[in-house]
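This part of the workshop introduces the protein records we will be handling. An example says more than a description, so a record of this kind follows:
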Amino acid sequence: IFTQGNLVKGCGYVGAIDTADFFRKFSFEFEAVLVATIVYLFMNRRGRNRGHEHKLTEKQKDELIAEWHPDPLVPDTPQDHPVLNPKFADGKMTKYVKIDGKEYLNMATSNFLGFIGEKRIELEMTLQSRLFANIGVGSCGPRGFYGTVDVHLNLESELANFMGCEEAVLYSYGFATVASAIPAYAKKGDIIFVDKGVNFAIQKGLQACRSRVEWFEHNDMQDLERLLKEQEARDKKDPKKAGTIRRFIVVEGLYANTADLCPLPRIMEFKWKYKVGNFFASISSLMY
């Protein structure tokens, strides 16, 4: 900021004023003016808005309402869409089903063993229906909360003897068996080697455990051993970390999606060779 001054008549000089000193002197006045301007504009705007509000007449409101046509939330569905025309099966969902009086081969359910519609099994279920009505098929939850009954414990003991195991656990819902068993043993940081052909229940169990999942090609033991060797090499480089993690192989005895049998002898060979635990989902094979 510059000012002009006179030394003598006809002569002049230009003097410089310190900018920082200038703003220090007038900072309060400047801030006060700024605040007053903001308040004025705010109050004046509110007053102007109130004065210039345009109120619609009832006729104008009715016209706007009549002209408004809302867009549909979803597109129109054609009347011949399958969802609007469901087909219902007549009778039991056995090997063959009847739909609209025509018989079809049933390939939409997992009744590949033909249990549904088997008279011997239906008769046995009828005789046991009173027992199921009284005690159910399990605790349907943690026994520490819901308790249990001796019939279920006896059944677990018989199942363990039949399978040649120390103990067995009865689940009330087949899907939840493997989906909860995997996260019960595997934790975050563990490694699970999984066949790409496993069923949906196993996939949900893998998501729940949050372990590192290594997928190998379906029933390809060479691909599985390749992954096991790679992990073995990593463990040798960091033995301290290797001692804190666990390794599992997850397969199905009889694959529900492909009906293939797993190469059980090779899986057991890898178990002892590479020190891994095995999960065998035997939902389909146990029934067979």
User: Anything to note?
Assistant: The longest strand covers residues 247-252.
